[in-house]
Structures are given as structure tokens and as C-alpha cells.
Specification:
single chain; 247 residues; alpha+beta; Creatine Amidinohydrolase; five-stranded antiparallel β-sheet; four-stranded antiparallel β-sheet; 4 helices; 27% strand
């Protein structure tokens, strides 16, 4: 059962999303060569304290940090540590907050210094694929058309979408129904209704879509060691179409 949000719920989720967007912007501005992923996590946690929100990820199923910091071939759930960013790296930052019982979730990928053209294109395609998916987030459309739009756009540009991890519903819980794969057939499965809120999050690999989990039990990496990019927004379905809550 996919939960529908009331107008009060949506108003609270808008507030949650706006707070997260402010935090994401400050984290993005902080990223630079020589900065460690632990410093990024510390900044994110401090900003969350200042905004009076609770980190959504810290302690979730045992996850040890407030931010997910995934570098180069790391797809998602990279655990912050003392590793410092180098020129030419790309890093994906995934953050979530709990504002008075209402969750929002977002992610972006950024190049550090000058990056090579293939990495630049990977980031551009992943970001645009999220936009293509969000265009399909409207009432009475099939949920699978979000998935199909993302996969079609990504594969048209010679990249692949991760199969092991998917987007999700979100609201009073970080993860709710439905699951939102970034691949699949069109015109299939449940139809979207006004009041649904979705965390749409394409994860796009330069090479194979296949992934594996590192020994830490969390960090997913590409099987071929090639880079990956990740973008995410929390999106409400309204009568007027998609409303991005984490802009």
C-alpha cells in the first residue's frame, strides 16, 4: 500500500525538504581538494544541529555516519573516514534529515578540481536522468514510466543503471512503499496518485551495472572499478505534476 500524504503532511515535508536543500548547498560549497570525507560528515552533522533536524541516516540499521560519501567507483553508502579528496575525483553525497517526524532525502555528485571528460559526461547524464524521471512523476501515470525514462536516457548515452539499489517512497519513515527501480518496462505496475511522495534516485555507472558490497557491509562499488554517479530528490506528486521538495 503506497501511503498518501495529507496537505498538512506535505507542508511539513516541504519544510523538511527546504532545510535539507540549504544543508546540501553548504556541503557542496565545502567540497574541495584536500578535504576529508570525515570533515564533510562533521559539517553535515553540525548544519543539521543548527537547523534543529535529526540526521536520518546515523544509526539507521547501524549506519555509523550522518552523510554517505562515495568516491569514484563507490556507488552508494560510502562511510566517511580520513580519506582526503584529490583533484580528478568525483564524490557523491547522500544526506537525509528528520524534521519533526518528516523525512527528506537528496543526493548529488560533484567533480573535485578538473575531472576528465568521461567523468564529466557521467555526472551530466546522471543528473539529467533524474530530471527525465521526475517529468514522469504525475497523477495517473504508471510508476514504471519513471524507471523507464531514467534507464532509456542513461543507456542512450552509453552508461548503465544500477540494479541492486532503488529509489523509494518517503514520509514519516525514511523508506516507505513503493520501491522505484531505475530500470524497467513502461506502462506497468501501480499508478501514481496526488499525495504520494517519492525519493527518486538514479545511480549511474560508467561501465557495467553490476555492483558488490565491500567488507564494511555498507559501501557498494562497481564490479569493474569504473566510476559511478548518484543524484536524488524528494518529489511530491500533486494535481499540477511533480513538486521537488529538496530544491
Amino acid at each position: 500500500m503506497i501511503p498518501l500524504k495529507s496537505e498538512k503532511d506535505l507542508e511539513m515535508m516541504r519544510k523538511s525538504g527546504k532545510i535539507l536543500a540549504r544543508i546540501m548547498k553548504k556541503v557542496e560549497e565545502f567540497i574541495a581538494e584536500g578535504v576529508s570525507t570525515q570533515e564533510i560528515d562533521s559539517l553535515a552533522e553540525e548544519l543539521m544541529k543548527q537547523e534543529n533536524v535529526i540526521p536520518a541516516f546515523k544509526g539507521y540499521k547501524g549506519y555509523p555516519a550522518s552523510a554517505c560519501t562515495s568516491i569514484n567507483e563507490e556507488i552508494v553508502h560510502g562511510i566517511p573516514d580520513g580519506r582526503k579528496l584529490k583533484a580528478g575525483d568525483i564524490i557523491s553525497i547522500d544526506l537525509g534529515v528528520n524534521y519533526q517526524g518528516y523525512f527528506s532525502d537528496a543526493a548529488f555528485t560533484l567533480g573535485v578540481g578538473r575531472i576528465n571528460p568521461k567523468k564529466k559526461k557521467l555526472i551530466e547524464v546522471a543528473k539529467k536522468s533524474l530530471s527525465e524521471g521526475i517529468k514522469q512523476a504525475r497523477p495517473e501515470n504508471y510508476l514504471s514510466n519513471i524507471s523507464f525514462a531514467i534507464q532509456s536516457y542513461v543507456e542512450k548515452h552509453g552508461f548503465s543503471v544500477v540494479r541492486q539499489f532503488v529509489g523509494h517512497g518517503i514520509g514519516c519513515n525514511l523508506h516507505e512503499d513503493p520501491e522505484i527501480p531505475n530500470f524497467g518496462l513502461p506502462n506497468f505496475g501501480p499508478t501514481l496518485k496526488s499525495g504520494m511522495v517519492l525519493a527518486i534516485e538514479p545511480m549511474v555507472n560508467m561501465g557495467t551495472w553490476e555492483s558488490k558490497i565491500l567488507d564494511n557491509g555498507w559501501t557498494a562499488v562497481t564490479k569493474d572499478g569504473l566510476p559511478s554517479a548518484h543524484f536524488e530528490h524528494t518529489v511530491a506528486i500533486t494535481e499540477k505534476g511533480a513538486e521537488i521538495l529538496t530544491n
